[in-house]
Amino acid sequence: MRNRWPACNIVVTSSLLQKEDQPLLFEMGVLTTIYKPTTQTRFVGELLSSLSKQTARPEERLTRSIRKDLQQGNLKQAEEQRKTIEKNELLSESRLQTLNAEFEYARGNYEKTITILKDNPNNQHDQLITLDLLGKSMLKLGFLQEALLCFDKARDQSPKNLTRLCLISEVEHSLGLEDKMR
Question: How far is CA 7 from CA 29, 119, 142, 144, in A?
């Protein structure tokens, strides 16, 4: 759903989710999670609160839309949205650098992606994105051990991301670490 409609607000309500599921939900672009059981008053209050936060933060919607465009190869459209972010100074310098690295990755400039991300160590907000991007760039350049380290660090923070788990398995297989594969 997030890939098709990057600007939509996703709210999940469930009794099955745990606190440790939060990093995965964040990666999926879930705006908020409302845990069951809940009352109608609490549900509406949390929903309105999260929607008002999202309305107040257009940079989140724009960065999601940019990421979608980059994944689909729409660099021109993504670039137009990045100009909006830069013109309105919607992101911190650190987050802007992460976004620049994502553009370089989309262009196939993997070494430049790595350089930008390594020169930007203070970005705590996009840490999972940074680790995944570093890992994928290292993988493209054939640095399998380094890629595995990045993916492992990201897995420590968000252990249920299936895409990342598959990448880890592929790298471990390539390195001959089948006994370590989990």
Answer: 10, 30, 35, 35
Exposed, middle or buried, 179 (CB in 10 Å: 0-12/13-18/19+)? exposed
Q: Note the Cα 156 to chain centre separation in Å.
A: 15
Distance CA 20, CA 55 (A): 26
Copy the structure tokens of residue 138: 């290292």
* Whole-number Å distance between alpha carbons of 102 and 29: 17
pTM: 0.74
pLDDT in tens, 124-171: 668 889 999 999 999 999 999 999 999 999 999 888 888 899 999 999
Provide the 3-class DSSP secondary structure of residue 23.
helix
- Please, is 15 exposed, middle or buried when counting C-beta atoms within 10 Å of its C-beta (0-12, 13-18, 19+)? exposed
The answer to whether 114 touches 98, Cβ cutoff 8 Å, is no
- Mean pLDDT along residues 54-68: 77
- Both tokens of residue 119? 């020169």
Is residue 2's pLDDT more than 60? Answer: no
* Residues near 182 by beta carbon (within 8 Å), at least 6 away in sequence: none
- pLDDT of 124 reads 63
Residue 52 is encoded by which pair of tokens? Answer: 């008002």
